[in-house]
Structure formats: structure tokens, C-alpha cells
Amino acid sequence: KPSDNLASPLRKRRNSQVAAAPPPPTTVAPTQPIDLLVCNAGYSYPARFLNIPAAEARRQMDINFFGCINVIRGALPSMLSFHERNPKSQPSRIVCISSLAAIIPAAGFTIYAPTKAALVAFCHSLDMESASKGVRAQVVYPPDVATPGFDKENEVKSEECKKICEGSPPFTAAQMGKAIADSLEAGGGFTITLGFDGWLLARLGAMMQPNTFLSGVAELLGVTTVSRIIGFIYSKIHYDIVKAVTRRERRGASRTQN
Q1: Across 101-113, average pLDDT
Q2: Chain-wide mean pLDDT for the chain?
Q3: How far apart are CA 141 and CA 10, in angstroms?
Q4: Among candidates 112, 138, 140, which has minimal Cα distance to 199?
Q5: How far apart are CA 91 and CA 97, in angstroms?
Q6: Residues 128-179 pLDDT 10s
Q7: Which residues neighbour 153 within 8 Å (Cβ) at sequence distance 6 or greater?
Q8: What are φ and ψ of residue 193, in 5° steps?
């Protein structure tokens, strides 16, 4: 289980539950606070778009996206409740396993890539909502990892997808688990990657968007630094708005109790 790979390096964190479970039907009530919630439901069917049945496309979204947010919907209330009672405690973490395909879509991933991109957008919004309440969200962008699922997807992988993905041998599951645990222990940011290629691609994704003309490339190169600064400012403003609303709600709740 992914939680087994993560639990050992994280034992010095407070005594807690490391949760990686199938979608719960209702809100869970753990006996101890959930310190780390890992959502790793997902699989890929990397055939060409017209060779992917409609039912298969919907199944990927149901598992890759809704499979994760259903777990979070069940666990998040208890996580927020714990931090409301213990506002000075160390933040809890929700870690969602996305994919490099979410930011670098490739032929063969016409369905898989958007399911993982949706997960990234969800985590960004969730982190903004819950960061000031003691719960942070993070996203892992794994490269190819040698698992039974990886072997299974190779059975239907399109030829062009094979060519795109064959540059480097897959990492092991242990390597990926260690990269996640190391990032968590170091208090890493929103993005978790493995290997230099993963680090680079996660940061250059915007520059790999389609550009038909050279002028488009030049324009992108010219505004990249400025756009990143502007994006940071907007993100900071949005987080501050949520933080202010949270403080106002807490003050209101405090006055009501008094």
C-alpha cells in the first residue's frame, strides 16, 4: 500500500493515522486525527482517442478524479474539526497523486491527462480554501513508475505514446514513495516530483503549450517571467482573501459562543 511506503519516514510526526482508502460512503470518524491523507486512485488507458470507448473514458474520470475527491469528502470534516479545536497544531496534509501528463499532455493521454489535470485544479482550490484552517493540499506529478498498472496500460498504449514515453526507464514504486515522504518531511510546496525530468517538466509545462507560429513562441518567452510574477501576486491575494474570511468567521463563532 502507498501508506506503508510513506508511514516509516513520517513516524517522527505526531501519532496519527495515514489514510489511503477506497471512497467512503459517509464522513469518517477516525479514533485519532488524520495527519496525512493520500489519494492515489487512478489508472490509464493510453490508446488513441477514437479507440477509447465512451464507457472507458467515463470510468477513468470516475476513478481518477471522483475516486480521490470522494475520499477527501469523507475525511476532510474531521481534519478541519481537529484543527478548529487545536489551532496551533502542525498542518495536516492531503496528497493527491496526479501525473506529469496533467501538465504535459501527450498523444495517447486524451482522456487520462484531463482527469489528472482536473485533480490538480481541485487541489489548488482546496488548498486555498483550507490552508488557513490547518489543512494543506499537495499534488504529486509521477513520471512512469513500474507497477502492475503500468504493465497493464502498455498492453493498449498507442505506438506514438510508446515512442514519447520510451526515453527513460520507469522509476520504482519505492523511489516514488521516498520522494513523496522526503518532500513532506522537508515541508515541501504544492508540487512534488521525482527525477530531473519531472522537476523540469513540472516547471516548464506552460512553455510546452501548442504554438503554431514562431511569434507565439517569442511572445511566450517574453512574458514568462512577468506572467509568473503576476500569477504569484494574484494567488497571494486570493489566499489572503480566504484567510480574512476564515478569521471573520472564527470571530463571529467566538462571539456567538460567548
Answers
A1: 89
A2: 79
A3: 20
A4: 140
A5: 19
A6: 999 999 999 999 988 888 888 888 888 999 888 888 887 778 888 899 888 8
A7: 43, 44, 45, 46
A8: -130, 175
Neighbouring residues of 48: CB distance < 8 A, sequence distance ≥ 6: 107, 108, 110, 158
3-class state of residue 16 by DSSP: coil
d(C-alpha 43, C-alpha 155), whole Å: 13
Q: Among all chains, which residue has been given the C-alpha cell 498542518?
A: 91
CA dihedral (88, 18, 115, 211) positive or negative: positive
Task: Specify the length of the chain in residues.
Answer: 258
What is the model's pTM? Answer: 0.75
Is 2 in contact with 177 (CB distance < 8 Å)? Answer: yes
Cβ density class 95-112: b for 16+ within 10 Å, e for less: bbbbbbbbbbbbbbbbbb
Number of helices (H) and strands (E), helices first, in the chain? 9, 7
